Amino acid sequence: MDRRALGCCIIVVLLSSVPGRAQVEIPAQVPPEYSATLFLDPIAFLGSQPGESRLDVFVQVGYDNLSFVKTGDTYAASCEMSIRIDDSTGAQVLEKLWTENVAGLTFDQSVSSAGYSLQQRSFPVPPGRYAVHVSVRDLESNTEKKASYRCFVPDFSGSLVALSDLMIASRITVRDGKKSILPNVSPNVGNLPEAFYVFFEVYDRVGADSLRLEARVFNAKQEVVVRTDTTEIVKTGRNEVFMRIDNSAMPLGDYLLSIRAVPASIPRDSKNAEKEYIASRGRAIIVRWKGLPRAMKDIDLAIEQLAYIAKDNEMADLKSGASLAEKQQKFLEFWKKRSLNPNAPRNERMALYYARIEYANKHFTRFREGWRTDMGLVFVLLGPPSNVERFPFPVDEKPEEVWQYYDLNFQFVFRDENGFGDYRLLTPLWEVYNRRRDF
């Protein structure tokens, strides 16, 4: 009798994995996108007392973390928030707790994926390393979300010229000569149109007169993709600086934003300019598209990963883009045609597809990327199986794994031919495509 027919021999592993073998867990569903609607961004500035710094903690709470209740003609929600700061030993230094109310919203506002509450709290702290912990507990559902961030608070008073941490701003408005900043608490600048702003402070103890502030954005290959400078006349003490950073040349990816201060007397083309800056500060930023997993960083790879669902002519068109911007546009058009709701801000099918790609890479990668494996192919197109039968130590035979899809009334059989966890599909490949239903 075929051992795959013996129900009593089924071995199902849900939470553990065996080194060197491919494993598939059976989640209730694959998250359509990474859950990142609670953001935390601590920014360090010079404090008001000698030898003291100030840590401004910005917290952005997406409305999907809150339960809204109808009150009259509008909707309202309440949550209990806390910010705790621990030092490098793990000892608590400071904590603030408060109740935050969001009221007066329309129904559309309360369910908007773009809606959020923005909070700021300031903490006087000595220079050092800290861990910042944020907790948000919805008072209606009693559910809690948490976020943590490790940061370093510099001693700004120890240098003749120093720069504060860098704050990313999505918008700056001017009213009655005063500037107002809307912080971009998320590190993602990909959803900001054309440009974003960086705000920081320059602390001058010697009266440097004028400084050239050079902004550089480096990609993962340490190549400069954005470069802009401004010359500022600085006074002794605290100086506020705003710089506009064009992000049109920043495709999907991870970046480092660097600001450095150079005496204005040093020519830009000076051979020593790289060594003669007197202060610098940097921070990580990312470019992502809303609705995509965090791991998606490369548009060319994202197009390549469409091989399972794109027709030959569609793939040729996607790759024909003369620039990254054109490829991105073709990519979005490809998915818009497959969207369940083309006018919705979030493409459910696109998000689901790349969430499965990410899952496959995490669980099935061996000699090839997980999405390129046979298990990856089946998982991307059909999702998680209803049940998994594993036969890792068969007598006189090679290890096999059977994925059962109850709703399709079908199963797929994989065999580890070389003993290194590289499971190959024994079921005819056309069966996978004939049963594809999601894309």
In words, what does this structure look like?
The chain is mainly beta and 439 residues long. It has three domains: 3-32 and 291-434, no CATH class; 36-154, Immunoglobulins (Immunoglobulin-like, Sandwich); 159-290, Sandwich (Immunoglobulin-like), CATH 2.60.40.10. It has helices at residues 107-110, 299-304, 312-319, 324-338, 348-364, 374-382, 429-434; strands at 38-46, 53-62, 69-71, 74-87, 92-105, 116-125, 128-138, 144-153, 161-163, 167-175, 178-183, 195-204, 210-218, 224-233, 237-246, 253-263, 279-287, 387-391, 400-405, 410-416, 423-425. The strands form five sheets. Strands 3, 4, 5, 7 and 8 form a five-stranded antiparallel beta sheet that branches. The longest helix has 17 residues, at 348-364. It is globular.
Shape: globular
| Structural domain tally | 3
The helix count comes to: 7
How much helical structure, as a percent, in the residues?
10-25%
Write down the oligomeric state: single chain
Number of strands: 21
Class per helix and strand makeup: mainly beta
The average pLDDT value, as a whole number, equals: 84
Main sheet makeup? 5 strands, antiparallel
One letter per element, helices H and strands E, the order comes to EEEEEHEEEEEEEEEEEEHHHHHEEEEH
Distance separating the two termini: 37 Å
Q: Approximately what portion of the residues adopt beta-strand conformation? A: 35-45%
Low-pLDDT residue intervals, each spanning 5 or more residues:
1-23, 25-36
Query: What is the radius of gyration computed over CA atoms, rounded to a whole number of angstroms?
Result: 26 Å
